[in-house]
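User: I'm putting together a small comparison set for a docking exercise, and I want a reference complex before I start. The sequence is below, and the ligand is pyridoxal-5'-phosphate. Could you produce the 3D structure with the ligand included, as structure tokens?
Assistant: Of course. I'll restate your input first, then give the structure tokens for the complex.
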Amino acid sequence: MIPEQKASTPLPFADDILKELDDLREQDLFRTTRQLPSGCVSFASNDYLNLSQNPELIAAADKALQKYGTGSGSSRLIAGSSQLIDELETEIARFKKCPASLVFPSGYQTAISVIPALIGPGDQVILDKLNHASLIDGARLSRARIRTYRHADPRSLQKILKKKLSGRRLVITDSLFSMDGDVPPLRELGQLCADYDAAFMVDEAHATGCLGESGRGAAEHCGAENLVHISMGTISKAMGGMGGFIAGSKILIELLINKARGFIYTTAPAPAQLGAALAALKIFSSQKALRRELADKSAFLREKLKARNFDIGSSCSHIIPVILGPNSVALQAREALLAKGYYCPVARYPTVPADKARLRLSLSTAHTQEEITGLVEALISWRDSRD
Ligand SMILES: Cc1ncc(COP(=O)(O)O)c(C=O)c1O
């Protein structure tokens, strides 16, 4: 039996909030959390290599849990450092071929802490127009002047860099865009940063483990690693766990230890999280076959959707949008697919531009050919039912 709840104390501005929520409902922008029905095939997870279910990661997390307990107790700068986290940072630095690395409790926390540590008022931060919210929020928190260039467009970036800009200049891009599944021309963007004396930060959240010969990400894939000053990654997607990291020079990491507020004023990641991340790194370097399998399955789905005239934008990866336009249409599609046993999340404004609501499909090595084909058939039958 659910125990009786204490009546909550109403907010003084509850009426305003109710109006705000009603406005969201009216625009088909109201969000809720939901549990998926058991047995449904989900195309929503960023666990691209299915490592969250890998026995080696589970055993490593368990071992760390048994040895160190459930929590790390305090901030790294107080007493939260451990052999485990030092080892993880050494291994991340080795994996990324960088002198040093620093781990954060989440990817979002990494972005919003690192950007304000690097730049401040009087400086310039230059963002791709479609960058992830965590990078935008980090830029806003820094209080530097924010400028944006056209998505994945070096000419548009150059126009900005050519201006006489005061202070430090930091250019930031996703390496694999989380809602579009495309990779920007990282070599050209990085070269422009080098030419105009700007620092180049690349968020490899969705590419880590999936792109590049060794799984180091899109910069490896594009041959642009030597142009990147600040390489960000997350442990929460293809690494199958939770956390974020920065890899780069020793002075960069020293600066972050001293200035990144989301590193200083937070409890260090939990031991189980660190143990699993170490095990994931071991798998990454050695498992080209997993990356190949993900790339092959993704190409298969992209081709099938394109052949049936679905708009998948410029996706070239395991993130595949099916762009439908109005919010109401994308929501209808989601519910129709769920009724057939497939869950495809909807991305709406402000995550994507207002008129470009979409199903955002994430592929993983766990998806079977039958599931992928079944999803495409369900999409076609939903579209036919609308005609
Ligand atoms: C590009 C990008 N960066 C950062 C993050 C945040 O990572 P995390 O989920 O670990 O907080 C995400 C999350 O989806 C992302 O898509």
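The chain has a mean pLDDT of 96. Residues 128 and 149 are 5 Å apart (CA to CA).
User: Thanks, that's exactly what I needed.
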